[in-house]
Amino acid sequence: MTYTYTEEEFYHMEFSDADEGDVHHCMRCKYTGDDWAQHDDFKNEDESNERLCPKCYAQSYFMASDEELRLYPQNKERRNNI
Fold it and tell me: pLDDT of 30-42, one tens digit each?
């Protein structure tokens, strides 16, 4: 049986000043932004929470390349228009 997570189980985070300028890109839904979601069930090897896409909650949320920034400009409003 597969467990389906609900949106209420995720919490959204904003990048801190230490992360200023860090923009991530989701390989799944193409969201690009400086925010992320977290869930206590998704951990990195060092036991810190993994940064997930705030739109689709995918784990494939990585630092955006220059090309991704050009093709998919940062747009937080896209998350709210699902």
Answer: 999 888 888 888 8
